[in-house]
Amino acid sequence: MMYDYLIVGAGLFGAVFAHEAKKHGKSCLVVEKRNHIAGNIYCKNVDGIHVHQYGAHIFHTSDRKIWDYINQFSEFNNYINSPVAIYKDELYNLPFNMNTFSKMWNIQTPAQAKAKIAEQIADLGITEPKNLEEQALSLVGTDVYEKLIKGYTEKQWGRSCRELPSFIIRRLPLRFTYDNNYFNSRYQGIPVEGYTAIVEKMLSGADIRLNTDYFAHKEELSALAHKTVFTGMLDEYFGFCYGSLEYRSVRFEEERLECDNYQGNAVVNYTDREVPYTRIIEHKHFTFGTQPFTIISREYSSEWKPGIEPYYPINDAKNSALAAKYQELAAKAERVIFGGRLGNYKYYDMDQVIAAALDCADAELS
Ligand code: FDA
């Protein structure tokens, strides 16, 4: 059979495209190299706890159209992301807000917090920040930087903040209200049935081949469809002809614990350098689980090298220039559409990837 579309990658981009194509009466073959669908939003159900295997995923958007779109596939709960940070033996609310400042300086009013931060910034006398450390210090002062930013950022990048460029942190939002809601988005929540069920519904009606690496069967698979939607790595598609695009990676260490509540919150950041992981996720709190056991994941930020899972594109000058060269090739490729975080070499939140896939489907199918 000749399909209308061969979709490489059963992640959110590929699934939204497949769903839209099906609505237009088109046929799709989806190939996925992993042994499961849903890409990085995959959740496995462990005795009733949805474990976010590739990192915590909280859906949030301010776009009503995207919120309505995703709600077709699942009901969402009222989870609000309110992470906390542990620095040595001190605990602070995130994002940086009046709860954080009140705990840090034993103050109560926004005016007191603003005065404290302004005083610390003035004492430093930084006029032109030369690196990330100076940039962060000039935005938030010494205490917030030392306790909540420095160690965490150094673990994330594997380098000292003095060696990191200042552009990584352009702004550091400070909130002068007692509001621990991490996101400013209008809509937020976790799908009650889990993300995998959403992708399963999106893909219904498409033929799916798991454990199938497109590159191992490129000619044969491409010959099965009129057009290819490619959501794998952009540079790999072109045989790394200009060299490899770089990423930061994350290693997840999962553990089942025979206690009902390990840390009292879904997300706890560890902001001192000495603790080797950046965060611990306790999955059951995303869905207010009441199981007698719990599952946690420790996240270790790591260097990426070819062969390990790529997570965050690096938007420095070198990688941006390289990506632009590959994007020129992609624009010229015939009968191939490039999409998603790997195909576009771009960090997308889930709502952004849905919007991009809908735009792409609209341009292609209407
Ligand atoms: P995705 O990577 O999911 O799918 C691509 C698929 O293609 C993969 O399944 C891959 O195996 C497959 N593939 C690649 N090459 C192939 C080949 N050669 N042959 C066959 N298959 C191939 N967003 C958000 O809104 N809220 C959040 O809280 C988070 N949290 C978060 C945490 C972490 C650690 C990360 C890294 C990212 C997030 N995100 C997020 C972002 C979210 O993960 C992202 O928007 C989507 O998963 C992107 O979906 P894609 O389909 O683009 O890629």
Automatic annotation (TrEMBL):
The keyword 4Fe-4S does not apply. Its cofactor is FAD. The keyword Nucleotide-binding does not apply. InterPro entries: UDP-GALP_mutase, UDP-GalPyranose_mutase_C. Keywords: FAD, Flavoprotein, Isomerase. Residues 147-347 form the UDP-galactopyranose mutase C-terminal domain. Its EC number is 5.4.99.9. One of its GO terms (molecular function) is UDP-galactopyranose mutase activity. SUPFAM superfamilies: FAD-linked reductases, C-terminal domain (SSF54373), Nucleotide-binding domain (SSF51971). It is an enzyme of class 5 (isomerase). Belongs to the UDP-galactopyranose/dTDP-fucopyranose mutase family. NCBIfam families: UDP-GALP_mutase. This is UDP-galactopyranose mutase. It comes from Hominisplanchenecus faecis.
